[in-house]
Amino acid sequence: MIRVSFKPGGQSGEVEPGLTVLDVAESLGLSITAPCGGRGRCGRCRVIVNRGCTPPTQAERDLLTGVELRNGVRLACEARLMDDAQIIVPSDSRTVGGKILAEDSWRHIKLSPNVHGHRLELPEPSLEDQRSDAERVADGLGARVEELRIDHAALAEMPAVLRDNDFSVRAIMVGDVLAAVRPPNEEPCCLGAAIDIGTTTVVTYLVDLQTGERVATASDHNPQARHGHDLISRIEYVQSAHTGLDDMRGLIVDLINRLLGEAVDQVGARRRDIYEATVVGNTCMHHLFLGLDPRNLARAPYIPVTTQPMTISAEEAGLAINRAGSVYCLPVIAGFVGADTVGVLLVSRMTDRERPTLAIDIGTNGEVMLWSGERLLVTSCAAGPAFEGGEISNGVRAAEGAIERVWLRDGSIGYATIGRARPNGICGSGIFDTVATLLDSRAVDATGRFADEQAARALPEGIASRLRGQGSAREFVLVAAADNGSGEIAFTQKDVREVQLAKGAVRAAVELLCSEAGIGTDEVHEVLLAGAFGNYIDRRSALRMGLLPEIPLERIEGVGNAAGAGALVALISTQERRRAAEIVSRAEHVELMANPQFQMAFADSMVFPEMT
Amino acid sequence: MIRVSFKPGGQSGEVEPGLTVLDVAESLGLSITAPCGGRGRCGRCRVIVNRGCTPPTQAERDLLTGVELRNGVRLACEARLMDDAQIIVPSDSRTVGGKILAEDSWRHIKLSPNVHGHRLELPEPSLEDQRSDAERVADGLGARVEELRIDHAALAEMPAVLRDNDFSVRAIMVGDVLAAVRPPNEEPCCLGAAIDIGTTTVVTYLVDLQTGERVATASDHNPQARHGHDLISRIEYVQSAHTGLDDMRGLIVDLINRLLGEAVDQVGARRRDIYEATVVGNTCMHHLFLGLDPRNLARAPYIPVTTQPMTISAEEAGLAINRAGSVYCLPVIAGFVGADTVGVLLVSRMTDRERPTLAIDIGTNGEVMLWSGERLLVTSCAAGPAFEGGEISNGVRAAEGAIERVWLRDGSIGYATIGRARPNGICGSGIFDTVATLLDSRAVDATGRFADEQAARALPEGIASRLRGQGSAREFVLVAAADNGSGEIAFTQKDVREVQLAKGAVRAAVELLCSEAGIGTDEVHEVLLAGAFGNYIDRRSALRMGLLPEIPLERIEGVGNAAGAGALVALISTQERRRAAEIVSRAEHVELMANPQFQMAFADSMVFPEMT
User: Which residue ranges make up each domain of chain A?
Assistant: First the structure.
């Protein structure tokens, strides 16, 4: 880890080496302007880095002047930090402020938030003008007082705020509710928070709703993990302990409140300046955040308490924001198809496409979505943890030292680790590459069996020499003990089987959705890969394994962290909320467990494609 | 006082003799059916009284059989209790149950409450029917789940209640919000509370919203009186003490919660069965109940925080009813024209009349309403406490021993006290009669001056002998010390002046409203007298004093406790709520303080009418 700090904001932290300045800044909650989405094209993310950094790239040499380069000016999206560093962020890279969304596909959402500030200059009351305070404010807003809903606390504060400010005030509307009457010059006056509750990590983004700029970010691990890393363990905890549901809810709500506090501190605002929060998560996280019992999600027939978008008061949600504020929870689709899936559908604009499109989001659970051009089908399947390194002999999470790339070149194996560190295991993307490489080298056949000793003789020496053991104990030595102080790293016959089970489940889901929609898998025109899965796996490996239908590489598209993006677009755009609700009401959930063809499709799908 | 108890309910208490069984039952919170409004016409309020009761009236002999009469069957509206009694209420007089409103004018409100219970028999979920719990319930209600608002606590309880009752449940709707899903057979399932917050007394009525029956009543003194009996003292307390507003709110909210507890205990229900409350009160009580600062009500230009009808959550209101419940506060009109005035307008249906109608409600403050046939004008005037016995030398509140009636017969004075007790002072209705009697006997002239010694010689001996003292110290001895162990009771010149000020203010308000509406006072076709004032004063005395325009006695109508009735009709009828809002938006508030003619009209109005 290297130590990085930013001036003038003072944000600092320890991060893995090799990340861009832009990524590091974001991970520390600092927003750097990057209109081109961090693609090294616009040259606006100028920062000053004096040491610890990779040399200027071609893009930097193209976009920066010689004087700038000599003075240490760099592009935050290009410069990678390899050692401890101090970075100066000039005000015009800072205050222009923060791309809200990282990727082109959803960068052009029109700002139409649910929160608005209105300056009012009201006439003072007199015996000739005895309108009530509420009516005076309503008239100033151009609203009929009979129709204007006023938050009760806002009404209680109104007489004093009006008179302390000589009837010149700012009215804050949350939807059609007058949420506050404030002194006229407070800035920032209207903040919003987008909250992405992941099973593993919780991220809160703070957005200035007057400008749409993301002004701060704070994140931490989901503390519910103390009761289990996976959803089923957490649901079991809720069932087993008397206060289980309250405990789980309290853990997540307390964390969010802490993160919101950190976020407002970053911009010198107060919690009461946050008038709205949007929340996205899988159905279990959604239920736990709302205090809804998730137990029926985990047992047949897998019934959620509700799937609808919900708007509840900040108080009901337990969030320490303005007490007149509201909390919008994105809808979910089914017990195992949550708001993160809705986020994928929302930000990918999948249902706007003319030709059949498939989207896949894989964590422990796999969600598969198919837009046939007319119908939107979604399902979930138990992919298991193999794709994240779980249940794999030497599987590890994606962190420093994890083998993230494996390749075959000239008959021998190469690999790369995260942070170029000494290898300590294989993470998800490395597992994909390993299996693809084993298939390409014929060390594993289409049924998933390792080449036996006889068959191995036909393999290149660089491959054959790494195979050892017999039958189900046969394995492939990816890193020999002699080459690695941390010990040997092998990939076993059982590991191959785990991957087959996982990919078989996902591919069977794809087959069944296509069958349900009445299209062949070869008619799928595009494949969208969501989340960390989509960001990191090698698309060629995914194709080689047969996880995806056969499709040209360029028609496979990553859609990034669609869950967080879903919360952000819902925060800045009420129209996107309507779209989310429409998508959910349009989505047809296909229950694989109820489908007699699933077991057959699953068995078929476990087989790897033959060498082409 | 006599001791009365009812079977089988067990309600009992001490009451004044001479009241009807119906009145006594109501005062003890027991509801007896009386479809004709207690007028001795329908014969349905049958009860059994074996002793302590006046003989059968003509109405009873007409409507009851000889056998019934021999068995002690009586009509509750006719039989008056003169001594200790036990009364049996047969189930068909009890359960058909309880006129909600005492007077014809508002007895025919159609039951259309905001709270409804719906029995649902839902299919159980399966892999083929994976609708969420919320969607299943919405479908059962015939609602679209996208449009059904569900209380958050109701949603959280839903999965367990559905499964514990095999998906056979009752859904309780409050307005368009699903407030609860309950086991199917709980009774009473939907209660409502109508709350009348008076400056002096707070009354809560409990109503079964499935039948519209009033099932219990509980009342007590307003504990805010510890910070002052009048509104101005209470507002001063709010201003002087740091926690003044919270204190005042807490006092009233705590009392209401206690009364609600007593009321639900009377019918064996629970607080959570109350899903809605309606609240009525003058503007100051309204503000204090809602935690709105009343200070601007008491200083020019007398601005309320809001006048609109308000619906807030039970939690915001601090009421210990179902937490999904809501609290509807009737609208107010101006700083000194509150929801009790709205109650008068609502239940009198004054604005439905074709000809000009005047309504007057007098407490410490006087509210005057004029419906011209086209416009609705309302105002308030500082009548002062004289009409309630305040600032009058021997004035007392209406309680046992208060002189409530005074008359002149054959040149001598007669009087009657409440409860036939030894006289201890004069209450409001007695003050009206005293002044009318003094005017009729010429002991006081039209300018309000007592007859001096010379003029007194022309008066009957029975009057002249009671006058004594000189000039401004002159007074009239109503009860001589020799006749009364409790001491002398006199009515002084200053007392006459206090009455003149009070009636002058009210009459001036009448004059100004008529002038504003462009009609003569002689065009007023009817006069409605509201509240305790309207129930107890002698109309002849009010006319004789010149408080009212000259009008035939039969066109003066009492409208009873219109405040409480306003809360009740709003509770049982959402249409009446809409009417209340319409009335308020239609009402034009006339500010007397801003009117240059008021002082002149006030001076003119202090003069009493000449003897006719």
Answer: 2-99, 115-182, 191-329, 349-612
More confident residue, B230 or A415: A415
Residue A93, phi then psi, degrees to nearest 5: -85, -15
What is the topology classification, in CATH, of domain B348-385+509-606? Nucleotidyltransferase; domain 5 (3.30.420)
Is the model's pLDDT at A225 over the cut of 80? yes
In the CATH scheme, what architecture does the domain A115-182 have? Roll (3.10)
Please list, residue by residue across A235-271, b when 16 or more beta carbons sit within 10 angstroms of its beta carbon and e when fewer do: bbbbeeeeebbebbbbbbbebbbbbbebbbebbebeb
Q: Give the pLDDT score at A99.
A: 30
Nearest Cβ partner for A589 among B130, B145, B589: B130
> Which residues contact residue B176 at a Cβ distance below 8 angstroms, ignoring those fewer than 6 apart?
B148, B149
- Contact at CB, A304 and B335, closer than 8 angstroms: no
Residue A20 has pLDDT above 60, yes or no: yes
Contacting residues of B for A577, CB less than 8 Å apart: none
Query: Is B257 within 8 Å of B239 (Cβ atoms)?
Result: no
Q: What stretches of A66-135 adopt beta strand conformation (E)? A: 73-75, 85-88, 115-121
**Which among B131, B291, B302 is the nearest to A130, CB-wise?**
B302
The structure tokens 């807003």 sit at A141
User: Which of 254-273 (A) contact B at CB < 8 A?
Assistant: none
Question: Which tokens go with A327?
Answer: 């909390």
Neighbours of A185 (CB within 10 A): 10
What are the pLDDT digits (tens) for A450-504? 999 999 999 999 999 999 999 899 999 999 887 777 789 999 999 999 999 999 9
pLDDT tens-digit readout, B57-112: 888 887 777 767 877 889 998 999 999 988 887 655 543 222 333 333 445 678 89
Domains B2-99 and B115-182 share a fold: yes
Encode pLDDT of A83-113 as tens digits.
998 888 765 554 322 233 333 344 567 889 9
Q: How far is the C-alpha of B106 from the C-alpha of B100, rounded, in Å?
A: 9
Q: Do B301 and A129 touch (CB under 8 A)?
A: yes
Which residues in chain A touch residue B296, judged by CB atoms under 8 angstroms apart? Answer: 133, 159
Residues A507-540: tens digit of each pLDDT: 999 999 999 999 999 999 999 998 777 778 888 9
Fold assignment, A191-329: Nucleotidyltransferase; domain 5 (3.30.420)
- Type of residue numbered B504: G
Q: Do B594 and A307 touch (CB under 8 A)?
A: no
The stretch A200-210 carries a mean pLDDT of: 92
In this complex, the residue of B292, B335, B585 whose CB is nearest that of residue A155 is B292
CATH number assigned to the domain covering B2-99: 3.10.20.30
pLDDT computed for residue A59 by the predictor: 84
Predicted local confidence at residue A102, as pLDDT: 39
Mean pLDDT, chain A, integer: 89
B405 forms beta bridges with B416
Give a three-class secondary structure readout of A22-49. Answer: HHHHHHCCCCCCCCCCCCCCCCCCEEEE
pLDDT at residue B612, as a whole number: 65
Q: Kindly state the greatest CA–CA separation across chain A.
A: 105
Is the complex ipTM higher than 0.85? no
What is the Cα–Cα distance from A330 to A114, expressed in whole angstroms? 14
Q: Is B407 on the interface with A (CB under 8 A)?
A: no
CB contact under 8 A, B305 and A158: yes
Q: Do the Cβ atoms of A333 and A342 come closer than 8 Å?
A: yes
Distance between CA atoms of B449 and B427, rounded to whole angstroms? 22
How many Cβ atoms sit within 10 Å of the Cβ of residue A599? 12
Separation in Å, CA of B207 to nearest CA in chain A: 27
Best A292, A315, A578 member to test B by mutation, with max B CBs in 10 Å, is A292
